[in-house]
Amino acid sequence: MRCTVADQRIKTLLDNLTNSFRSGRPGSPLSSIFNIIPPLSRFDEGKRIQRKATHMLRGFFKENIQEHLATLDPKNPRDLYDAYLIEQKEARERGIDADLWSGNIAETL
Description:
Layout: H1 8-22, H2 29-36, H3 45-70, H4 80-93
Helix pairs in contact: 1-3
GO molecular function: heme binding; iron ion binding; monooxygenase activity; oxidoreductase activity, acting on paired donors, with incorporation or reduction of molecular oxygen
Keywords: Monooxygenase, Oxidoreductase
């Protein structure tokens, strides 16, 4: 799979990630206030922006993993996604604990 910034989906993802990085720094005075007084955290715009970017990134990876699962040929891996999915499947077949595989990805096979 090739990604270019001409792809609107990639551009939107990159814009959201950029906004997330620019939205604030952990440990900033404002962030400290939100930690001290949790009800105020609903006003934390930086945190909302970061959650949005994280949600989009997870969706991007989940969509790509699903596409790769649908067309996976274990004898002809195309990219890192295929290599990961093949290794994951082989590990599960060998009885290696699925908890070693992070997040919901382990549940896709």
